[in-house]
Amino acid sequence: MTEKIIQDIKKFNRFYTRHMGLFNIYTDESPYSATEALILFEISNKKDCTAAYLSNYFLLDKSYISRILKHFERDGLIAKKLSELDRRIQHIELTDIGEEALKTLADKASNTVQSMIDKISEEEIEIVVESMKKIEEILYSKTQ
Amino acid sequence: MTEKIIQDIKKFNRFYTRHMGLFNIYTDESPYSATEALILFEISNKKDCTAAYLSNYFLLDKSYISRILKHFERDGLIAKKLSELDRRIQHIELTDIGEEALKTLADKASNTVQSMIDKISEEEIEIVVESMKKIEEILYSKTQ
DNA sequence: TTAGAAAGTGGCTTTAGTCAACTATTATTT
DNA sequence: AAATAATAGTTGACTAAAGCCACTTTCTAA
User: Fold this and answer.
1) Is position B60 within any domain?
2) Which positions fall inside the HTH marR-type domain (chains A, B) (predicted)?
3) How many distinct structural domains can be found in chain A?
């Protein structure tokens, strides 16, 4: 496995980190940070979501997650429900308000992607998307 | 251009953001943050680098860049030189110490990539790298 | 039954980054 | 030529994001 491959991957990492950063700029008049948006998204998609799961999934300190969830609860975006099987555990679900908030964030993210690919031909977009799928498919299978 | 393409790109963005986050964990006993490392890297590669350039390039507040560069100067990693053509401008260069520090960070990043692709076959790695190149090639040409 | 671990919380600290005002210099406008 | 505006960079103050530590409650393992 050559050093060149490692350099190529690092180059892409730098490029993509910056690329995503450039396009975050258009979405930051949101009341929620990128981290919070991702957490809301994950709650929305994860069956039986818990704070511990989110902390592990995002590699964030559990007390930070706890605080974020408290804000979400205060804002009415989520509801917590004590597990009957293990009363340490709270199950977290998005409320209707939370679904709404997430939809707003998702729409903004869609607009961001839209502007990211504005001047690219359908053909090239197809290549980008297929390439992304290949990367995710291969890398994902090795981290689960 | 379909909504599905936008969803696919967003999915990849979420995946790759987290993927890079997972692999940062192995490099964080560094005295420099990821941002600082990227700045050092850019100084190393950019001819006639200036603070204003770095602020624009990374979309970071100029006062934050100023402080980071001050730390780098204090640590002996960079040298600043007033431009003779425009005495507002300072040219920034890496010192030998800075090259050394960057090398250390680069080696750590290489180890991170190494562990990222540890269990992937040469064939699949080839696909990943080629896919990354395609993405960068297409997206890059539209943001410069 | 006791000790250890897990889940979550709150106080506090650290880190990352922003905002505003400033100085010095150059460019533009009058 | 002088006045005004803009740029490059700095500093102080501040906010936001995130981490650390100690705690309580609950469950698991010994």
Assistant:
1) yes
2) 2-137
3) 1
**CB-to-strand D under 7 Å, chain A 27-86:** 33, 35, 59-64, 67, 85-86
pLDDT at A1 (0 to 100): 62
- Beta carbons within 8 Å of A54's beta carbon, 6+ residues apart: A39, A42, A43, A60, A65, A69, A92
Structural domain contains residue B29: yes
Residue B28 domain boundaries: 15-104
The reply to whether A18 Cβ lies less than 7 angstroms from strand C is no
Strand D contact with B66 (CB < 7 A):
yes
Enter the tokens of residue A80. Answer: 């917590």
Taken in order A18, B133, A9, A110, the sign of the CA dihedral is positive
Question: A68: which 2 tokens?
Answer: 């974020």
Strand partners, A80: A92
Look up the pTM and report it. 0.89
Residue A27 pLDDT exceeds 60: no
Tokens 């709270």, located at residue? A90
Tell me if B68 is assigned to some domain: yes
Count the Cβ atoms, other than its own, within 10 Å of residue B139.
Answer: 17
Burial A73-108 (b: 16+ CB within 10 A, else e): beeebbeeeeeeeeeebbebbbeeebeebbeebbeb
Here the tokens at position A74 are 């205060």
Mark the ranges of chain B whose per-residue pLDDT is less than 70: 1, 25-29, 144
Across the interface, whether the CB atoms of A20 and B18 are under 8 A apart is answered no
- The token duo for B114 is 């190494």
b/e burial code for range B87-125 (CB count within 10 A of at least 16 → b): eebbebebeeebeebbeebbebbeebbeebbeebeeebb
Cβ contact B63 with chain C strand, < 7 A = yes
Domain-located, residue B8:
no
